[in-house]
C-alpha cells in the first residue's frame, strides 16, 4: 500500500479543521436565533453565513486534487457564501454601526456621518465585486461540468 504524501495529509487535516471550526461557529450562531440581541457580539445571521464559508473552504482544501469538479463546486459555494455575507452587511436590514475605538460613527454629527456613508459604500462595492466573483465561479463550475459531458 502506497504511503500518502505528508503534504496531502496536512492539507486534509487543515480542511477538516476548517470544517470543524465552521460547524462549531455555525452551531453557536444557530443557537442564538430567537434570543435577545446582544448575547452575541455579531449578528447571528452574519455569523452563520461566515460559518458556511468556513465549511466550504475546508471542503475545498480537503478535496483531492484529482477531483477538480468537486473543488470547483465547493469553491463556488465558498465564494457565494462570502458574497452573501457582504450582501447581508451592506444591504441587510437593521442599523449598521461602524466604530473605531470608543468613537461611534453613528453617534457623531457632521463629518463623521460622511465617514459612515463611505464605509457603507465600501461594503456595497465589496458586495457587488464578490457577487461578480461568485457568478464567475459558478460559470466555471458549470462549464467544467458541460465540457466533460
Folded structure, characterized:
The chain is mainly α and 149 residues long. The protein has one domain (6-148). 72% of the residues lie in helices and 3% in strands. It contains 4 helices and 2 strands, in the order αααββα. It has helices spanning 6-31, 44-62, 68-91, 111-148; strands at residues 99-100, 103-104. The protein has a two-stranded antiparallel sheet with strand order 1-2. Strand 1 and strand 2 form a beta hairpin. Helix 2 runs antiparallel to helix 3 (68-91) and helix 3 runs antiparallel to helix 4 (111-148). It is globular, with a radius of gyration of 19 Å. Residues 102-106 have low confidence and may be disordered.
In short:
This protein is mainly alpha-helical. 72% of the residues lie in helices and 3% in strands.
Give the helices and strands, then pairings:
Elements: H1 6-31, H2 44-62, H3 68-91, E1 99-100, E2 103-104, H4 111-148
Helix pairs in contact: 1-2, 2-3, 3-4
Main sheet: strands, sense, barrel? 2 strands, antiparallel
Q: Which residues sit in consecutive blocks of at least 5 with pLDDT less than 50?
A: 102-106
Decide which structural class fits the backbone.
mainly alpha
User: Quick one: overall form?
Assistant: globular
- Please state the average pLDDT score: 83
Number of strands: 2
The number of helical elements comes to: 4
Give the amount of beta strand, in percent.
under 5%
Distance between the termini: 33 Å
Radius of gyration equals 19 Å
For the structure shown, list the relevant keywords.
two-stranded antiparallel ribbon, single chain, mainly alpha, 149 residues
Amino acid at each position: 500500500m502506497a504511503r500518502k504524501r505528508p503534504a496531502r495529509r496536512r492539507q486534509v487535516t487543515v480542511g477538516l479543521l476548517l470544517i470543524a471550526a465552521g460547524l462549531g461557529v455555525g452551531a453557536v450562531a444557530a443557537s442564538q436565533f430567537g434570543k435577545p440581541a446582544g448575547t452575541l457580539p455579531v449578528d447571528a445571521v452574519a455569523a452563520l453565513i461566515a460559518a458556511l464559508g468556513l465549511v466550504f473552504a475546508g471542503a475545498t482544501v480537503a478535496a483531492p486534487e484529482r477531483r477538480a469538479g468537486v473543488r470547483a463546486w465547493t469553491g463556488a459555494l465558498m465564494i457565494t457564501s462570502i458574497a452573501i455575507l457582504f450582501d447581508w452587511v451592506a444591504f441587510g436590514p437593521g442599523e449598521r454601526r461602524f466604530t473605531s475605538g470608543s468613537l461611534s460613527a453613528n453617534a457623531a454629527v457632521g463629518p463623521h456621518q460622511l465617514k459612515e456613508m463611505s464605509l457603507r459604500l465600501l461594503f456595497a462595492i465589496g458586495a457587488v465585486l464578490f457577487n461578480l466573483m461568485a457568478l464567475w465561479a459558478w460559470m466555471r463550475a458549470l462549464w467544467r461540468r458541460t465540457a466533460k459531458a
